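Quick look at the format.
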Amino acid sequence: MKYLLGSLAVLALSVGVGWAAGANGSVIAGIPSLALLAALAMAVQWVAWIPASALQSERFYDLTGSFTYLTVVVSGLTLATDLGPREWVLSAMVLLWSGRLGTFLFRRVHRDGKDGRFDEIKTRPPRFLWAWSLQGLWVFLTVLAVLTVLTGERNPPLGLFDAVGWALWGVGFALEVVADAQKSRFKADPANKGAWIEVGLWRWSRHPNYFGEILLWFGVFLSAATTFAGAQWIAVLSPLFVAFLLSKGSGVPLLEERADAKWGGDPAYEAYKERVPVLIPRPPRS
């Protein structure tokens, strides 16, 4: 019961944030468009949960996340009353990022055969629904800044903040893509079985892909914020949520815990941790 109530609470939180942040934007039947997009993001997850629960499979979990980004962004574009370069570029950034990440994670799950995060919960429908609901919240909060632009009514000319924001997104996206590719090649080499990665960008940071993701969403927010007024500034939750989730939530701490359990106490590994920063890259040092 608690997981069912938790899923309803997550829905209420998403819609509540959308209602508050969308107060200065467009409305449909008296309801802020942003709140409806929040409900749509959750609806996609709940519909996908039905066959996933019946099959007790997590194989399409990440791909559904990417499809949810596509659904809410395209819906936001159809609701927009004044589409300009900012709206199109920000939307394209989200779709490119989510499509790339979703397919990358989808291929990884099918290559490995399963995602260990779901071993205990995919056989328990209410708890499995909770996981899908959290993904709906993740999608909505992550893309909140862009959806606020699409449903908003202000569209000032492009300026310096847009240029800087788009540049940050480009750097962050490149970091994430290159880091993921380097790690995939490293793990594919049988000679590296059982070893931690310390090549390429991974010599500069223990989690360069996460740093890239945080950077790109701050870039998106910087451009989007040029259109905000009043309650729309609630959309600052977007980059802050991503940064917190990856650095303090289910990202870095979980992976560091797994690495410590596997290699902790190994002098070479402890020296590696002293040498390489956790998140923010810096040139390698001896």
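Next, a different chain entirely:
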Amino acid sequence: MDNRDQQISILEVLHRIKQKKITVLVSLAITFVIACIIILPVPRYYNSSVELAPELGLPTGSSGGLGAVASSLGLNMGQGNLTDAIGPEIYPELLKSNNFMMQLIHVQVKTQDGKITAPYYDYLLKYQKRNPVSDFWYSIIGVFKKKKPIMLAKEINPFHLTEQQDGIFAKMKNNISCSIDKKTNLITINVEDQDPLIAGTMAEVTSEKLQDFITNYRTSKARKDVEYYQKLTDKAKSVYEKARQLYGSYSDANMDVMLQSIKSKQEDLENDMQLKYNNYTQVNTQLLAAKAKVQERTPVVTVVKSATVPLKPSGPKRMIFIAVMLLISFMLTTLYICRDMYMNLFK
């Protein structure tokens, strides 16, 4: 078609719409009612987020300065060779694990109006606002299903979850998300909930639990070394004290004795005490070094953005949803009215 034909076609479409304006208005009215029925009962939800900047281990065999420059340019040099087996890219999967969820189910949460105080799991199980439309269909389906007893947080076995518990865990994983900025390694934890105070509370608690995990992981080897050297130090100290007491008692008992055999025995006891003291000081030095290693391995996680209680809901975007539904309805109605015109184009 040339421009003139296109203009005539557009005018024809507008003319058809004007002729069938009753059909268009009825279609839009029906769509508006259906869209309102769908979106208005959906409970509002709030989002709260935390941003963390973790300290990373240096890649083995690489320069820290060169790595920093590469990171600032968005390049990832040697990240696969980090001394840590669990890097930031693993944290999103970590937050989705049942073991991590188990650390959150017993967190005491309180709604902003103060009417509900319960463990997070029990709150999701018993106090969630539901969509009455979807609830109606679920209740119909539920008539044909066998009712199962409600199990609270204290009765959960993460190794063997029931269908109900698995559903709550899935909801927790859907509410709590984690993302990583590969360029800056910035960790963003986002929590969605129907109550703004609970959203802020769980965002803060989740970030704390993640920081604890990072710290425990990075220091686990060093802490085991501390325990090992602490046992050696305690044992060496006990052995040394016994040797010192034996030497002191023997020296006091034979203070005025001039026999060479007594002096030889006293020297042997003194030498043995000195050897045990040297052993004690050596393992004690290793213990102090292991404790210093724990401090060295303890990561510094900087909270770039702390959790806050959101003031406005994040969704659902009701007006946008209704507007989009009306636009789609208008387009489909227009296609239906002008269907003969479009069919002629393909003849």
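The chain has a mean pLDDT of 81.

See the schema section for token definitions.
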